[in-house]
């Protein structure tokens, strides 16, 4: 799922996952609409944090009310997963 620059799994770098969809897409189960988009929440180095703050990179995005410091949504690892998975897990941080 998440591969580092050396080609090996690097799950330790993932601080969490962000669901990138509207609430209605999660709660409404309809035929053909059984996937949601997710992306990992990762710690960013200073250069990436600055680029994200300036809006000069499409590779990552800031998260309002972030659960930690220097965390960004890694948009280069965006993927679709069956919505049953994220909907069954307990949520640690929820944005309103």
Outline the structure in words.
The chain is an alpha+beta fold. It has 3 helices and 5 strands. It starts with 13 loop residues before the first strand and ends in an 8-residue tail after the last helix.
Brief sketch in words of this structure:
It is built from three helices and five strands. It is of the alpha+beta class.
Tally of individual helices: 3
Sheet-strand content, in percent, reads 25-35%
Question: What's the total count of β strands?
Answer: 5
- State mean pLDDT (0 to 100 scale): 77
Helix and strand string, N-terminal first?
A: EHEHEEEH
Largest sheet: 5 strands, antiparallel
Residue stretches low in confidence (pLDDT < 50, at least 5 long) are: none
The level of helicity is 10-25%
What structural class results from the helix and strand content? alpha+beta
| Span of the ends, CA to CA | 28 Å
**Over all CA atoms, what is the radius of gyration?**
14 Å
Apparent shape? elongated
Give the topology, please.
Layout: E1 14-19, H1 23-27, E2 35-43, H2 46-54, E3 60-61, E4 71-74, E5 79-82, H3 84-88
Antiparallel strand pairs: 1-2, 2-4, 2-5, 3-4
Search tags:
single chain, alpha+beta, 5-stranded antiparallel beta sheet, 3 helices, 5 strands, 26% strand, elongated
